[in-house]
Amino acid sequence: MSPLNFTRLLAQTVTELSTSASLKGLFHEHKDGDPLPSGKALHEIIELCRAILFPGFYGQSTVNHHTIAYHIGVDIERLYNLLTDQIQAGLCFAEEDREENRILSDTACETHREQAIDLAGQFISRLPNLRAVLATDVEAAYNGDPAAESYGEIISCYPIIKALGNYRIAHELLLLGVPLIPRIITEMAHSETGIDIHPAAKIGHHFTIDHGTGVVIGATCIIGNRVKLYQGVTLGAKSFPLDDNGHPIKGIPRHPILEDDVIVYANSTILGRITIGKGATIGGNIWVTENVAAGARLIQEKYK
Fold first, then answer.
1. At a CB cut-off of 8 Å and minimum separation 6, what does 232 contact?
2. Dist CA 229 CA 207 (whole Å)
3. Is the distance from CB of 42 to CB of 178 less than 8 angstroms?
4. How far apart are CA 93 and CA 280, in angstroms?
5. Which of 30, 113, 231, 242 could cross-link 211 (Cys pair, CB 3.0–4.6 Å)?
6. pLDDT tens across 75-99, in order?
């Protein structure tokens, strides 16, 4: 191809990629001064949360009982500032992305700043409870795996703790009404661990996933206490009801409920708004679309 033809090809391609029709629904127009969510900042936020929740295992390795208050104080101050900026960015992004409100006024941005400051403070106040719940998850992972030699090994090595940490952080932000950012945080854990937990799912204490890779937990799942999953388990939706225009109806309960003390073994798929009763066991490689009674043991029939 001659240089002239190549130049024409480039120009034509740029023109086609810049048309309104080509960009519809795929383009977020940035305006000077407007904050945008930052993957780099959110990664630092997660690292700070891990250092605060599990000091010594993450973050400053020289922390001890004499310096822990100092290190946690420094990390929380940094976390508060970063989180305020990112929450504001999420609020601005969500409002700008609405078709009926494409232009965000300076007054609205300032209101979002004040709201972000308040929400960041509320999240910080929930960190002690977050640590308490994550401590039960560490305990469940340790007690559920005879290969584990210490809590420290669980915290340092097991992907479920990283995935659950991100999920529980994201879930609290979602409960506070923060848009977009909770989903980004859980998808970061999905990329890191192979465990996909929607931030809107509700998960009780002493939860664990052995191995973890390939687990999917949908947005409207409700999981009780002391539940254990194995790798490859899907807690998904069976179907998507459509509205009069043929579009999926969003926000309706469509994922399973797992009551307390349920165990689901590897690669089983549980679909729809069904209930797996307290203390039930679901064997591996099973497709479940109907309620399972409390205490039941569902396994494949032996081949004859």
1. 213, 214, 215, 266, 267, 268
2. 8
3. no
4. 43
5. 231
6. 999 999 999 999 999 998 887 655 4
DSSP 21: H
Residue matched to tokens 């605060």: 52
With a cut of 70, say whether residue 31 has pLDDT above it.
Answer: no
Other C-beta atoms lying within 10 Å of the C-beta of residue 238: 14
At residue 105, does pLDDT exceed 70? Answer: no
Helix (H, G, I), strand (E, B) or coil at 240: coil
| Assigned token pair, 17 | 């990629």
pTM of the model: 0.89
Segment 190-211, tens digit of pLDDT: 999 999 999 999 999 999 999 9
In 3D, which of 215, 212, 196, 204 has the Cα closest to residue 257? 204
DSSP secondary structure, 32-72, as one string: TT-----HHHHHHHHHHHHHHHSBTTBS-TT--TTTHHHHH
Can you point out the beta strands (E) in the chain?
Answer: 196-197, 202-203, 208-210, 216-217, 222-223, 228-230, 234-236, 257-258, 263-264, 269-271, 275-276, 281-282, 287-288, 297-298
Hey, what amino acid is at 46? I
Residue 218 pLDDT level (bands cut at 50, 70, 90)? very high
Integer Cα distance of 169 and 221 in angstroms: 17
